[in-house]
Amino acid sequence: MNITINNLGKSYGKKEVLKEINLEIEEGMFGLLGPNGAGKTTLMRILTTLIPKNQGNIKINNIDISNKKEIRKTIGYLPQDFSIYPTMSVYEALDYLALLAGIKNRNIRKERIEYLLQKVNLENHKNTKVRALSGGMKRRLGIAQAILHHPKIIIVDEPTAGLDPEERIRFRNLLRDFSEGRIVILSTHIVEDVEFTCENLAVLNNGGLLYTGKVKELLQDAEGYVWTVNIKREELDSVRNEYQIISTVSEGDLIKLRLISKDKPFENANSVKPSIEDAYMKLMKEV
Ligand code: ADP
């Protein structure tokens, strides 16, 4: 199970949306992290064969991406703007999609759907109308439709946006369960999504690849660069001009800062262990 991307490029007119992307994705959960507009959706739409690339090569399990039919059998996709048949019940919607996917036998469809509903924890909602589902339930239904045809690769675009914290955690765990023996690509601009689920990641910005590798190694790269320090309120502006500030917390007359700096920024600053957010911010700053 692997995806190999070599020198991928994509343009819309004169605008280069993806440039010189080289990536190797193996079994497990893979995070695709980057700010809005970085090119994540474009990359995923190319992988799912929905849009063509302009440059480079992509192979999925050694099958060239130009072989759309074979590639589509391998991939399940949950787009960001996923929505289906609001007036159907959950069961009816899946049954219809299963029919479209070519499962003609009603009993086989039933068996498959019941299995999926149980997998995504929607057994108790099979008669609920799609429009009455919560955001988290809709995303879980989205996963059910994405894995209807037993894909070995699942691609999900910004799935946690708009979910409350409990649903977000639940959804992440669901994805992690699915990543056993499969590739799950999770695209997000939320650093925390990657921190808690992915072993490997790629960071995109402005269509370019800033980093690819283990989450652990990204953290190691930021080791020694993250500091906390208490400063006076009136010093904030000048510190802001000089350093990349990650967070500020008011503590009485003082402000507790967390910042990125190669060297010790102040005599009373303390070096702290980087979080993924710190490492990501450091990476963004280096551009
Ligand atoms: P992300 O998913 O990281 O937010 P996208 O892949 O959606 O980023 O977009 C990357 C860039 O490509 C953006 O600047 C966006 O405006 C541009 N873009 C995406 N689709 C099109 C299109 N069909 N035509 C022109 N520009 C596009």
Automatic annotation (TrEMBL):
Pfam families under this entry?
Answer: ABC_tran (PF00005)
Keywords in alphabetical order, please.
ATP-binding, Nucleotide-binding, Transport
| InterPro entries given in the database record | AAA+_ATPase, ABC_transporter-like_ATP-bd, ABC_transporter-like_CS, P-loop_NTPase
Q: Which Gene3D superfamilies match?
A: P-loop containing nucleotide triphosphate hydrolases (3.40.50.300)
Outline the extent of the ABC transporter domain: 3-231
Record-level Gene Ontology MF annotations: ATP binding
Q: Which domain of life is it from?
A: Bacteria
Record's keyword annotation contains DNA-binding: no
State the PROSITE patterns in the record.
ABC_TRANSPORTER_1, ABC_TRANSPORTER_2
Instruction: Describe the family membership recorded for this protein in Swiss-Prot or TrEMBL.
Output: Belongs to the ABC transporter superfamily.
Entries under PANTHER family matching the protein: ABC TRANSPORTER, ATP-BINDING PROTEIN (PTHR43335:SF2)
Protein name, UniProt field: ABC transporter ATP-binding protein
Lineage of the native species? Bacteria, Bacillati, Bacillota, Clostridia, Eubacteriales
